[in-house]
Amino acid sequence: MSELRNRILEKLRFYEPRQIQASDRIPAAVLMPFFEKDGEPHLLFTKRTAHVQYHRGEICFPGGAQERIDASLQATALRELYEEIQVPSHHVEILGRLDSIRTVSSYFLVVPYVGYLKEVTRFEPDPLEVEEILQIPFRHFEDPSIFSEEIRIVEQEPHAVYYYQWQSHTIWGLTARILKTLLDLLRT
């Protein structure tokens, strides 16, 4: 088992995720999928196509809105992982969850789950939803030079916006906030 997987599991075991009640928001979930590639931990992101309704062209974690068939938001995250990149739920070990987060440019309340892919698997993107799959070595996020931050005013309140650079891609918005939450937790 991965040392990183064990560190994440230990940190999330004692973490009390912040939960937000927002009846005016659409419940949604994402999965942060970690996996081993060439003997080192990687984190998987997808680039959304121009065909999706929300967050077109953005780098994100697999996820989406809760549907009636989903028994829980965790089930939503696992269903979306399968729909977007064909990873079955029995290949995923859920390590825990992070804080609920409101999206800024849409009306979702997102619950992020952290998952470890137990088996080496092929990723087969759904061409309607996923333009590209990014497999980023986790050590990349330990480099402070790839990170930047700015303050934006949203609904008359200041909000930090985070950016992580990977090759020609910029990870920002909700995905960067989720990533920063986990990175900060691992540094404590």
Summary of the model, kept short:
By secondary structure, this protein is an alpha+beta fold. It has helices at residues 3-13, 73-85, 173-187; strands at 26-37, 40-48, 59-60, 63-65, 92-97, 101-102, 108-117, 130-137, 147-154, 157-166, 169-172. It has one domain (3-142): Nucleoside Triphosphate Pyrophosphohydrolase (Alpha-Beta Complex).
Describe this structure in words.
By secondary structure, the protein is an alpha+beta fold. The protein has one domain: Nucleoside Triphosphate Pyrophosphohydrolase, CATH 3.90.79.10. The protein has three helices and eleven strands. The strands form two sheets. Strands 1, 2, 3, 4, 5, 6, 7 and 8 form an eight-stranded mixed sheet that branches. It has a three-stranded antiparallel sheet with strand order 9-10-11. Strand 6 and strand 7 (108-117) form a beta hairpin. The longest helix is centred in the last third of the chain and has 15 residues, at 173-187. The relative contact order is 0.22.
